[in-house]
Design brief:
The protein is mainly α and about 190 residues long. The protein is built from five helices and four strands, in the order ααββββααα. Strands 1-2 form a two-stranded antiparallel sheet. The radius of gyration is 42 Å and the shape is elongated. The relative contact order is 0.07.
């Protein structure tokens, strides 16, 4: 417990709930009003709540000076107002239902945004009959790759054929000729018919 009372999270610990759920339970009890992130103290709650505003206030940029409010509640308030475990369970159900609805809405919005994005990336084809078939993107990629491969191969052949041909004539062809002579010579020596 803090110096001035308990926070909503501390009030919720005996009920095993978070501060968010306890704030809803306090709203249902008439102590708070508003929505999460915008809670305000009601006239009935002023007696039980100590509210203090804080800011860092040391940074020259106003955006770097966070401003927040801490509400601390009198711990006797729970018993005095008769907040029971059933009240807290109802608040927990309300918070869970709201979060599930927000999650479902977020997912639906995400699916819709994805569908709109994909539709914008693949605009529908025009109704004009071009008289020919439309080339699929994969087919176009394969055609481009084949043309590029042929071009690179042609360049390499043109660039390297004279040196390769010279090396063939100087080194490989004489060795093949000697090898062929040896093979013919071995056959004539080992051939029983000759």
């Amino acid at each position: 417990m803090g110096k001035f009372g308990q926070t909503a999270s501390e009030l919720g610990r005996p009920f095993l709930v978070s501060g968010d759920v306890m704030n809803v339970a306090l709203r249902n009890a008439g102590i708070l009003e508003g929505e999460p992130g915008e809670w305000r103290i009601t006239a009935a709650g002023e007696r039980w709540v100590n509210e203090r505003d804080f800011t860092n206030g040391r940074h020259p940029d106003a955006h770097q000076n966070p401003y927040f409010t801490v509400r601390q509640f009198d711990p006797e308030m729970v018993e005095a107002l008769g907040i029971t475990a059933e009240d807290v369970a109802a608040a927990k159900l309300e918070v869970t239902t709201k979060r599930a609805a927000q999650s479902a809405q977020f997912k639906a919005d995400r699916v819709q945004a994805d569908a709109e994005f994909l539709a914008s990336q693949n605009p529908p084809a025009a109704d004009v009959d071009s008289g020919g078939r439309r080339i699929e993107p994969r087919t176009a990629i394969v055609v481009v790759a084949v043309v590029a491969g042929v071009a690179v191969t042609a360049y390499l052949i043109i660039k390297h054929v004279p040196p390769v041909r010279r090396r063939w004539d100087e080194k490989v062809a004489p060795r093949l000729a000697r090898w062929a002579e040896r093979r013919r010579g071995d056959r004539t020596e080992n051939d029983p018919e000759k």
